[in-house]
Amino acid sequence: MPFSLWLSLAAVCAMGAMSPGPSLALVLRHTLGGGRLVGMTAALCHAGGVGAYALLTVLGLGALIAKSPALFQLITWAGAAYLGWLGIQALRAGGAGAMQQQGVVTSSARAAKEGVLVALGNPKLIIFFIALLSQFVTPDMSLLGKVLIVVTAMVIDGGWYVLVAVALSHSRVLPWLQQRAHWINRITGVLLLALALRVVAGPMG
């Protein structure tokens, strides 16, 4: 995979990780309730679940492209529609959303379990990954290329939420984010809509 194409992959994976939703709420809740280490545990275990879905998606997309290009295109458009819906939801969210979550008393074991379950218990991640990864998977892609895609998705997801946990462990950060939640949602919404249009446009070269 050319470096420029990998940078595009990293950018769309980061966009997926940063979009507000149950994953952000999970890390926020465990960080506020158990501290930095517990929040980081939730983040890393969530990344493991994301990696499992990314692997399934990459393997499935390769087979689907080879056997049924028309069905692959249809599923890709469905994924783009889902990205667009997420973007609209973010734009309509205003200042509400994951940033309003409160902490609960928790532990590393609970954070680890919930981190995996939130990822694996969200089948919409498959749709999300189909939309994102359809831009990069090809029928003749090598095993190393597929591994690179999965590892990139895992590292970016885990790295982002670890950063969130570290930032939220400082008491001044959360109020600052809450005050600007409407702008965060608006920016995320616009970027998700732009990404949906990019998926419809076709694979990145």
Automatic annotation (TrEMBL):
The chain crosses the membrane at residues 41-66, 116-137, 143-163, 183-201. Keywords: Cell membrane, Membrane, Transmembrane, Transmembrane helix. InterPro entries: LeuE-type (IPR001123). It is found in: Cell membrane. It is a multi-pass membrane protein. Pfam families: LysE. It comes from the Bacteria. This is LysE family transporter. It comes from Vreelandella gomseomensis.
